[in-house]
Amino acid sequence: MSWMYTLSGFLVGLIVGITGVGGGSLMTPLLVLLFGVSPATAVGTDLLYASLTKSLGGWVHARRGTVDWRVVGLLALGSLPASVATIVLFKYLALDEKTLRGLVTSVLSVALLLTATALLLKDWIKKVARRQDGTVYELHHRYLPAATIATGVVVGALVTISSVGAGVLGTVALLFLYPRMSAVKVVGTDIVHAVPLTAIAGMGHLAMGTVDFTLLGSLLLGSLPGIYIGSHLSAKVPEKVLRPLLAIMLMIIGTKMVLY
After folding, report:
1. Which end of the chain has fewer CB within 10 Å, C or N?
2. What is the pTM of this model?
3. What domain range includes position 66?
4. Count of CB atoms within 10 A of residue 3's CB?
5. Which pLDDT tens digit goes with each residue over 169-209?
């Protein structure tokens, strides 16, 4: 079965390389629906997988100077404590296998449907942020830090429970909160923020015993070359075609997870 995991890792990596999104939102449901992996184990393994794969992307963006470190700090101020609190709550509640499975599946399905919606509305959100005269709507600078921290809290809890949300939802939130920030900086900031978040959430799942290292190794074996190839193909494949297809796919998967 390990070669099937590696092949799945390669295909997901390819999609991530081309579109920049789809890691957690595709990998976790794929493991649950296709391979029958326990939802909690799928989430825990995917979180460590994401932290390792995003580290390289974060390093590249940091070297290029396409990261807003102040925004990363504000997001982390909300997301990291929220992630730790979520794991502690899991440990305190000591949920049985069936209850944990139901909770993770429910949150995962909601996160997938939100991600699909965010993908479809990404361009519309950009347009909404701009007035007729070309200027942009912005939150008053007094409220912006608090709104960014609050966004981090929501993303942190969502990612820890479902492994979904750090990518598309984080990016869309940044586009809305910081409409003047360049697209490449939004992506770089979101990726760098996701590295410590997924690492801490993944370590929390490791402490809970919901990480499969054999599965993790098989996924990485396929995904790293997949991301490399996909990143080179990204200029040749139109994102406007791929994004709606990916959104529709996530809608279908999210609906299936609801019925799972």
Report:
1. N
2. 0.83
3. 2-259
4. 10
5. 788 888 888 888 887 788 889 889 999 999 999 999 999 88
